[in-house]
Amino acid sequence: MERPQKKSMRALHHALTKRLGNGLDRPAPTAGRGSQMAAQDAVSTALDQSIERALACAARVQVERNDAPLRLEELLSLPAAEREAAVSREAGYQSYQLASHLLKRSEKAVFHDLGLARELARLAHLVALHTEPQSCGGSEALADLQAYALGVEGNALRVAGELREALVAFMRAREAQEQGGADPDLSARLDLMEASLRRDLRQLDKALELLDRAARTFISLRDAEQTARAMINRANVFLVKRDLDHAIGSLRAALPLVKDSWLELHLRHNLISALAECGKATDAAEIYEETRGLYLQFSDPLTNNRRCWAEGLIARELGELEKARLLLVGAAENLAANGYGFDAVLAGLDLVAVHAKQGNAEEVLRVASHLLQVFQLHNVRPEALVALCMVQEAAERRELNRGILAQAAEILRANQARTSRTD
User: Fold this and answer.
1) Which superfamily, per CATH, for 299-423?
2) CA distances from 118 to 68, 104, 196, 262, 382 (A)
3) Domain locations in the chain?
4) 277-310 residue pLDDT tens
5) Distance between CA 125 and CA 249 in Å, rounded?
6) CA 83 from chain center: how many Å?
């Protein structure tokens, strides 16, 4: 029986050899006791070689990580039509670290520049396609990264309201993932993003299934922050189902797990909206005041306008209708101007509800018509206009009420889901 130390050394050797793909073989069996020392020396030599290669690999990875921001700036300085050729031609643009950096930047850009977010994700996928498997842990690790890049691009498409294109991107991501499976973290993050798309498509059971799978993975990885993200996204599904009590419970349960300031803001924003919509405007106002400073830490268009939107909802439910009107007008128009069509239409419906609450059919008609013009000007998808058209027609007949407004929100989501199917 081998001693524990020898077992550990042999296991380390085999693990490093497999990970680095260095082609080292086990020493060939030899006959006779006199050859045992030679075999042990061969194992020791192979182990030393594996460790040397691991250290060299770690040093190279660190260099690539440090170079990634500069490489990204170089790529973006090129005309868009030349970037693909540069990646395929120059080895300096072919690294796992650069692709990872591009994806991190894309995830941040989705909140202020959807076009940039999509381009960064596209470039990340391209970089991953041209990266040598031996340089980053093998073909399975690269396949996972390629799948994740397609998912990040799909998520940017989803945020822009382009659900059909987003679904295609996630289908491509799942095809790429079939060749991977080496990275459970990236796989679970892909589940999180696809769950958001399935939620927007009203495929709510599928969304919950993906979120449950992601949560199990993050719990096994002891990643509290990503577990909290899964809980927040689960609450978002309950929001779509209009099960506000369960949504509020999920959000409150996730709050202690959150350490990242951006994630905390996202959670608090959803909690504020849910409380306002379920008739607990005073509670929503208290949390909003607690969160005001956190909102102001972020200056991107999506955050700024969601803050105004949330404040407008609270004002509406507290009966401060003129304040609500001003806030919601600004939020709806600016969301549309920045390409966040789905959010813009929903904020527009909340604005119309302010005037409906006043019983002012003429103003409802004027605002609905104006919002239609604004959204058409900024090329919001036609399906996203269905809900406001319904409101406008009801206003013309002087039949608008809260029930019709709620139905309009449902029609908005249903029409987007229908036009996003591939069959």
Assistant:
1) Tetratricopeptide repeat domain (1.25.40.10)
2) 18, 12, 17, 21, 21
3) 299-423
4) 888 999 999 999 999 999 999 988 889 999 999 9
5) 38
6) 24
